[in-house]
Amino acid sequence: MNFNTFFRKKNISDLQDTTQKSELSRVLTVKDLTFFGIAAIIGAGIFSTIGRASYEGGPAISLLFILVAVACIFTALCYAQFASMIPVSGSAYTYTYVSLGEIFAWTIGWALILEYAVSNMVIAISWSGYFVSMLQGFGIHWPDWLSIDYWNAHRAYLASLAHPSTISENDLKLSKIYQSAPEFANIKIIFNLPAGLITLLVTSLAYVGIKESTRVSNALVWIKLSVIIGIILIGAFYVKPDNWSPFSPNGLGGVMGGVAAVFFSFIGFDSISTTAEEAKNPQRDLPRAMLYCIIICTVLYASIALILTGMVNYKELRVDDPLAYVFNKIGINFIAGIISVSAVIAMTGAILVYQIGQPRIWMTMSRDGLLWKPFGSIHKKYHTPGFATIIAGFFVGIPAMFLDMQLVVDLTSVGTFFAFILVCSGVLYLDNKDLSKQAKFKLIYINGQYVIPLTFCLGITLFFSQTNYKEILTIKPLLIIFWIIWLGISIGALKYKFSLIPVLGILFNLYLMTELGWSNWGMFILWLLIGLTIYFLYGRKNSKLEKLLQTTNDK
């Protein structure tokens, strides 16, 4: 086995030729791309997970949104440089293929499949909750056994039998739903039907065409931006500054405990790059759209976090519908109703963007020979990756009907952080090979030759002078890996004069990764092992680069 084949790279000029042969329709403007990013970012995060993050960190969670946004901006700048060089669908997968090689590209592509699918499962499940709530507001009762997942209901039922006196109110409700649900062959019929239906509806729209999807997406974004800005302006009149004291009630640990939830709120800006072959001027508009959407969404997220924690005490925000909850709490019920409707609209837009992005990553991997050929087929009438879009619908819709949202949230972040780190690393590679000069949007070069090692020395001195060693080894052993990698980057910076911005992207994302729980890492590693098995059994021998190499050797 020749290990060099694992690191073979695609040629940038060949990829640029690919865009000219693309069968996809070039219809997207910079506004469309920006709205795609906003639609992906402002979904379940602002209507759901922001509440639990605020419960963990208090008002200071607004600062965590800014910190995560900074990490995303450093990463987005790296994405932007790649997008201006390689206007090809595939996002981080394609960028990694030309910079770090095939095995890393496959790993990232496989991780992105998880990110996009799982993110949409979370949003679909959250959408279902708001949809049922909205129907109740109109006097329509949706059957309880058709709006929750089986495993959560079964768990609550067992808990009610084992500990009937200490069971929570929510688990008691779930247990009653389980007991009253209809049966078939002695199996309770319980599943989240709305989550499956919205996935089916959105997948159908994504299948029909990018132009039609864009029109719907843009309209949904305008509506939710109007509602969110209205919430901020109205909520500001009901803020009690006393609720902001203490600002960080649980300290840094409490704030960082919300990393998974807050980062989940931001993932999605990379979905813009999956539509590169459908943008009118991708090399100019993709970089702009990525930065525009992150800046807009950061302002909105931080503002909402401050408004929420100012209107009620942060301890009350451990709910799945925090925005509706706080307005009900202060007696403005009609605003709560508007929020439920707008949440349904916002999440529909987010699901749509992910269902557009995921098939295009599969399409790109299939064109490279790493996935089965039908995934790369383009519908002759609609000019969309038809087969991949249908499979993506099943891949998201079926699990969304049966899985618990918290389990699914745990799967999202590690793979995304990993993808972001490799994209930033890819920019360092391009700089070292003098390939960055081909980019129409190029990162400002800031020489980190001495800055990176000096900050490492300062950081590690402060860290170990104020940290309990036993705590590191027992609670956060991943921090050791963080410092080891930073040391390696520092040594590399002395030799290769690394640019500071991509290094900051690597370090920010790597540090945030260390704040994730072991469950996140365990499930991600299991997913990677499955992916690598597929690569070695199918992808490696069917790779276009492998076949090109064999043809060359035969000659």
TrEMBL record:
One family name in Pfam for this protein: AA_permease_2
What is the recorded membrane topology of this protein? Multi-pass membrane protein
Cite the entry's keywords alphabetically.
Membrane, Transmembrane, Transmembrane helix, Transport
Any GO CC annotation of this UniProt entry: membrane
- Keyword Transport listed: yes
Q: Does the keyword Acetylation apply?
A: no
Chain ranges of the Cationic amino acid transporter C-terminal domain: 500-543
Q: Which InterPro entries match?
A: AA/rel_permease1 (IPR002293), CAT_C (IPR029485)
Question: Residues of the signal sequence?
Answer: none
Record's subcellular location: Membrane
The UniProt transmembrane annotation reads: 33-51, 63-82, 94-114, 121-142, 189-208, 220-239, 251-269, 289-312, 332-357, 382-402, 414-431, 443-466, 472-489, 496-512, 518-538
The UniProt GO MF terms for this protein read:
amino acid transmembrane transporter activity
Q: What is this protein called?
A: Amino acid transporter
